[in-house]
Amino acid sequence: MNDQSKPMDAASSAPVANATVAVRPGxxxxxxxxxxxxTDDIVAALKTVxxxxxxxDIYELGLIYKIEIGDDRAIAVDMTLTTPNxxxxxxxxxxxxxxxxxVSGVGPVSVEIVWEPPWDPSxxxxxxxxxxNIW
Length: 135
What we know:
With about 140 residues, this protein is of the alpha/beta class.
């Protein structure tokens, strides 16, 4: 298990493949089954977003570090890029925001580019490694 799949707070977070999903505490917590549905639907939406230069989706590439679901259904996504000089740096966050916003039942969506920890190929899933023929 690498660092990105370890929850930051075991009471309010859970690892989901390449990212940590955290539920922000608040007044009226969402039922666990709704959090699970939202998580599954958000991950499915993220898997539709591809870096235009790489034939693997951004989730399997390990570019999504954290997904936070607020009690108000607001979604915050922390993501990174393969390199600070990524030619898709302007469009990928917008694509992520649009994909997550398309999920039924989510509120406002915010996407933040983060650089810590830096991305490296060890963050890719086995699926991405097969697609890219990297072992």
